[in-house]
Amino acid sequence: MNSVSEYLHRYSDALSDRIDELHEPLHYRGQAFDFAETKRQPKRGQTDAIAALVKAMRAGEKTVNMVGALGSGKTTVAAIAVHTHARGRPYRCIVMCPPHLPRKWKRELLDIVPQARVQIVERYTDLVRLASCRAAPIGAEFYIVSESMAKLAPAWKPSVVVRRNGLACGRCYSRPMKKIVGDETGLEPMSLDDLGNTKTSCSTCGEPLWQWVAKPSRWPIATYAAKKMRGMFDYAVIDEVHEASGSNTAIAIAASKIVSMCKHVIPLTGTYVNGYAHGIMHLLWRSAPTSLQTMGFEYGQTSEFAKKYGRLEKTIRTKVPTYSNRQSSGSKGRTTVKVRPGVMPTIFGDHLLGKCVFLGLEDICDDLPQFTRGVSPVHMESEQFAAYREIEEAAASAMHELIQSGNMRAISQLIRCMIDYPDHPNGYGPIGYEDEDQQWREIIEPRSLKDQVWPKDRALIDLVRSEVSAGRKCWVFAEMTQKRDVQRLLQAKLERVGIRTAVLRSGAVPTKKREEWIAKHAPGVDCIISHPRLVAVGLDFFQRDPRGGYLYNFPTLAFYQTSMQTSVVRQASGRAFRIGQELPCKVIHFHYEECLEQKMVNLMGAKIQASEAIDGKFSSDGLSALSDTSDAMGMALAKSLVASMQKVVA
Predict the structure, then answer these.
(1) pLDDT band for position 13 (50/70/90)?
(2) Global confidence as pTM
(3) Displacement of CA 298 from its chain's centroid (Å)
(4) By mean pLDDT, which of 13-17, 51-55, 406-410 is the weakest?
(5) I need a labelling partner for 614 at 20 to 30 A (CA). Which of 3, 236, 355, 410 fits?
(6) How many CA atoms lie less than 13 Å away from 408 in the CB half-sphere?
């Protein structure tokens, strides 16, 4: 037996029978169920997901996660599930979603729920009247808040008094102190700049040495609602809940406050696992902690949870004086334990099986268009390759020491340079790092080559021209946007050959206006270029024309540069392949051969296969390969670089 996939295929029937013996399902596929009347009828597969959600909530589960493939209609499923569970009674539901989706959520809810009252909450003051009167709902009421406004607090400033001898606490007049750099016991007075960097409290009396400011006039909507409106909301829908998997992030805290004030919660996501076991633990603690408590876990025990369901890396560093014997007791060292990427399959049975409903596109319809993902390797030009090899050799010689010291900043800088350089081989200054003695050590200053149409540029241009001539629009993903702006260079090179091109940029288009920007610009262009993160969630790459056909459709997606984050690649890849798409969809990853970018694309392919295991699409790599952080990807590339150079030397 060579893989998890082979094992599951061989014993799938026996495993299914055993699961049925141990856990009686609340709902069987295709089983009759009494749905509430809605404007939009759910499709096959969606009906089973809705029934499962409703039955689980009626069975006593407060939180039931909806884990759906990209484009599977999670909004439709959640809206109908809430409306059906209410059994015709008036109810109130709060929806927290990414900042560019409130208007889309409002359209969808009005198009699904009969006589729904939908309000987008932009400030906490929008809820003050309702919180004051505490009126009962009069029908189907939905309140939509973006995650940014749910978490966004007012600005703050230091709050101290000025005395003759310096700054002091306004309550006890003690001087705020800080540690002296390089001196573990020494203290020195804090300045206003020090107090303005982080919220500080007086070490003597505990008085906060900061205060909120009135402008801008805002307050976290989630905090206000949890304090003033507890018991007033029957349901909460948390869209893209994986964004709240951090231990103490503002979004995570906002989500937990909304969960605490509602009777039933439906978190929505297409990528529940973020690569780390403790990410799931944080989500569970905030929404459904029963299984954790039953197994004896306490809040904050991330290491214990990761030890059971994930991976821990123990690093032992020992400093041995030159005069010391290695076996003597005089050597000093320290041990650090880090949680590394990786999730064990047993986590699903122990904690997720009764709290998750899974839905794939294949569960909904049989007439999905063809979806293909491929890579397009490209040879560098001789001068380009020679300059790249200089960087790679210099990096490889320094990488071993950087890995041993754990200098992720320098490692990331080198990895990013080697991946980006062939696409924009000019404008780099000296690359290096500060060693343990705070001395600057230069690794290399890459050569600057004259800009031209490079081989990958030509390959991309050929693809776009071919697709456009066939009547297919293209969306191109490129990540370099700042000092070395590849997006603008690509736009100029495409327009030079007659391709009408637009660039979607985060600075020029606010998050909440991206959907409008696409609707305005997409019909008149052949190609759009953007960073994949800008469109990773909630945006569709096609819009049907009520008269027939499409107003615009981008069925071909090209990664000129591939992101290091698995979830970003997966989410961005699925923008066109959704319900309603009739054209075959293509995703092409371009990369240069014989360089680090090729290793990254190959590694990303394995990560995508592994991450799809959460949807039941097991690969030969298994869940142990699951990872979703650029740090983890960078370290893997760094180690592969060292290994490959050692083989060359040998």
Answers:
(1) confident
(2) 0.77
(3) 26
(4) 13-17
(5) 236
(6) 8
Nearest to 335, CA basis, from 352, 357, 312 = 312
- Tokens (6 digits) for 37: 């009347």
Pick the more confident residue, 319 or 60.
Answer: 60
What Cα–Cα distance (Å) separates residue 330 from each residue in 325, 333, 336, 427, 436? 8, 10, 20, 49, 22
Burial annotation 352-389 (CB, 10 A radius, 16+ → b, else e): beebbbbbbbebbeeebeebebebbebebeeebbebbe
DSSP conformational letter for 612: G
pLDDT tier at 621, thresholds 50, 70, 90: very low
Do β-strands 177-179 and 166-168 pair in parallel, antiparallel, or remain unpaired? unpaired
Per-residue buried b or exposed e for 539-566, using 16+ beta carbons within 10 Å of the residue's own CB: bbbbeeeeeeebebbbbbbbbbbbbbbb
How far is C-alpha 433 from the chain's CA centre?
29
Q: Which residues contact 231 (CB under 8 A, 6 or more apart)?
A: 261
């001395």: which residue's tokens? 439
Determine the number of helices (DSSP H) and then strands (DSSP E) in the chain.
Answer: 22, 25
- With the CA atoms of 515, 517, 518 and 523 taken in that order, what torsion angle do they form, in degrees rounded to the nearest 10? 140
Place of tokens 């939509």: 144
Which one is predicted more confidently, 612 or 193?
193
How distant, in Å, are the alpha carbons of 32, 83, 90, 109 from that of 115?
A: 26, 11, 11, 10
Of 107-121, 145-159, 617-631, the poorest mean pLDDT is in 617-631
Instruction: Return the structure tokens found at 375.
Output: 């890579």
Residues whose CB is less than 8 angstroms from the CB of residue 60 and which lie 6 or more positions away in sequence, other chains included: none
Residue 284 sits at the vertex; the CA angle it makes with 282 and 288, to the nearest 5 degrees, is 145
Task: Give whole-number Cα distances, 361 to 67, 519, 574, in Å.
Answer: 12, 25, 11
Spatial separation of the C-alpha atoms in residues 537 and 518, rounded to whole Å: 14
Residue of higher predicted confidence among 193 and 346: 193
In the chain, domain spans: 4-29+36-152+223-309+343-362, 156-212, 313-339, 369-379+452-628
Residue 91, amino acid: Y
- Work out the angle at residue 605's Cα, subtended by the Cα atoms of residues 65 and 616, and round it to the nearest 5 degrees: 35
CATH 3.40.50.10810 given to domain 4-29+36-152+223-309+343-362: yes
Better pLDDT: 486 or 278 = 486
CATH class, 369-379+452-628 region? alpha beta
* 319 Rama sector, left if φ>0, alpha if ψ -120 to 50, beta otherwise: beta
Provide long-range contacts, Cβ within 8 A and 24+ apart, for 252-256. Answer: 252/282, 252/286, 253/151, 253/222, 254/96, 254/147, 254/150, 254/151, 254/220, 254/221, 254/222, 254/223, 255/96, 255/147, 255/150, 255/222, 255/286, 256/286, 256/287
Give the model confidence (pLDDT) of 416-463 as tens digits. Answer: 899 999 999 998 889 888 877 778 888 999 999 998 999 999 999 999
Supply the mean pLDDT for the chain: 84
Residue 335 — φ and ψ, nearest 5°?
Answer: -120, 130
Q: Helical H runs in 23-101?
A: 46-58, 74-85
What is the SS3 string spanning 98-130?
CCCCHHHHHHHHHHHCCCCEEEECCCHHHHHHH
Q: Are strands 440-444 and 431-434 parallel, antiparallel or unpaired?
A: antiparallel
